[in-house]
Amino acid sequence: MKITLKLYATLAAHLPAGATRNQIELEVPAGTTPADLARQYNLPPRLTHLVLVNGHYIPPEARATTVLAEGDVLAIWPPIAGG
Amino acid sequence: MAWHRKILRVNLTQGTCTAEPLNMEWAQQYLGQRGLATKYFCEEVDPKVDPLSPENKLIYATGPLTGTMASTGGRYSVVTKGALTGAIACSNSGGYFGAELRFAGWDMIIFEGRSPQPVYLHIEDDKAELLPAENFIWGKSVWDTEALIKQRHQDPLMRVSCIGKAGENGVLFAAIVNDLHRAAGRSGVGAVMGSKNLKAVAVRGTKGVGNIHDPKAFFAAVNAAKKVLHDNPVTGQGLPKYGTQVLMNVINEIGASPTRNHRDVQFEGASKISAEAMHEKRPTDGKTHLVTNQACFGCTIACGRISRIDETHFSVRTSPQYWGANGGLEYEAAWAFGNANGVDDLEALQFCNLLCNEHGIDPISMGATVGAVMELYEIGALSKEEIGFEAPFGSAEALIKLVKMTAEGEGFGKIVGLGSKRLTEKYGHPELSMSVKGQEFPAYDGRALQGMGLEYATSNRGACHLRGYMVASEVLGIPYKTDPQATEGKPELLKAFQDATAVVDSSGLCVFTTFAWGLPDIQAQIQAACEGDWSLEKLNLVGERIWNLEREFNLKAGFTAKDDTLPPRLLKEGCKTGPQKGAVSRIDIMMPKYYEVRGWDANGVPTPETRARLGL
Fold it and tell me: What CATH fold (topology level) applies to the domain A2-77?
């Protein structure tokens, strides 16, 4: 199934080749979780801070159990702030 | 001590400058800067005064840590009755001016009256004098004013805080700008300064800030706090590299980015105007928009953005004065000119930001007011003939023209310069002003983030994100993550944020430190620098006291509980897209609890018990 992976700020360096504007469409097996993709793309756990699926926050304890669905958008940020 | 114990009173009507001792009893109750200046202001000014009359006063105030070695200790505030809002105004700025004022030996400047002729205040340590601005800097831009003053006084190290043409022309959201692109931006403090015929404050100080209560303890506290900032991924890495603009994509992703005058909550062009986009090489010249980051005085975060506009862009192709590296874009300005108007042209947004720096304008209210113009145009309430050109959402050309006309006070720009509240009333659609107490919203949707909606509705200076930044918790997980749509617990959390922010704004430090520092980190520095008891318990009380003092000023000025609300769009029209789809603000649920935790009655008035507890 296809999902969209978005990595922002310092995590952008972990995006695979072919990504544009911080995002890339990926073919992933059924049952894939945010934690699976974070591991696959070597995201440092300390910097895997804001994990959103379709804009909804996924807390740390649910990142290995939330199963992505066809068309989902997984977006991840390190700790950030502004104002 | 930390305080110099000395304030400067400038009577503009009489042309006098007089030194006075600082009221140390009040300093122990209100700390400094925002709190102490508000105390002076409330004691001296009738809350019902016309903001643009000589009876209004304008206070420049530093905190006890301004100019010290504390990280970010460069802040100053401008306190007055806001021209845009008619409410208490406190606009804070960074840069280097605040520290220089302290180096000259002053804690605060109180301007009163109105000068018969345009003047500027020149300070050199103890010497303070009013000098003529006519045929010199009156009518000049912020940038030219600073250059001319430095040239006349033959002092390149002088620091200048001034208004541009907008403040002179009575733009109600005019800002006061220092160090070319740092600003006391909100509520129209620049319009008040202009109404007093006061163009600039130029200061040179050589005394330093040496009167620290316990230097050894201060040294230790400051170093420990700097390590916290350095080791924190937000203040040590994220903010220096990406600046506040890093929020553009995340706020959009969670569906909390007000777009096209709050019609929408997600902007399809957000990625083109984000922090990440500022790091991309342009196809036209192969250069990145962002040149470098920049720090204010004493700051070890350095979140400021310095960018270079594309010389081939239509806005500046024939205007080389804009081609150099300059301040911006910060998140709020990018949002206000971009998302609020549906414009995704990064260079156009930076040009509008430059115009705001050059002419002394609050970019948030400027951009948001243009958003109201564009919606009025699209629904047919404003015609092409009245504006002078077509102004649909998404038009960078119209956006730039409207900003220029507002700065210069030309044609339809005079009406835009009144702000969205007055503008939408004039054209029969007051419901289209996206504002609270007359001040336009910043870059977060009060429906998508319930706590922010409550924050806007209760902010003492009108809609503002910096009085209790609930985004930190609702989006960023600082200090802990809360559900954006939850209402339970938000009034209590907001009160804690508001009170703590009032303390930070009264200390001389930057509120951005609180992404890493807790109040104990700040308390240790204040306690070491200042004589007296500055325990956590006392600081919390000081913050609450400041908040209630501001509230009481607004109540006496004529505001009531009815003003603690949001535009009907946020109360009735659900978010159209994204994860918060369908959400409206539930301040109706949260407000009674907020009043209760504040110790206010059902009408939002502090009870006698609350007043007694806070010593009001």
Answer: Ubiquitin-like (UB roll) (3.10.20)
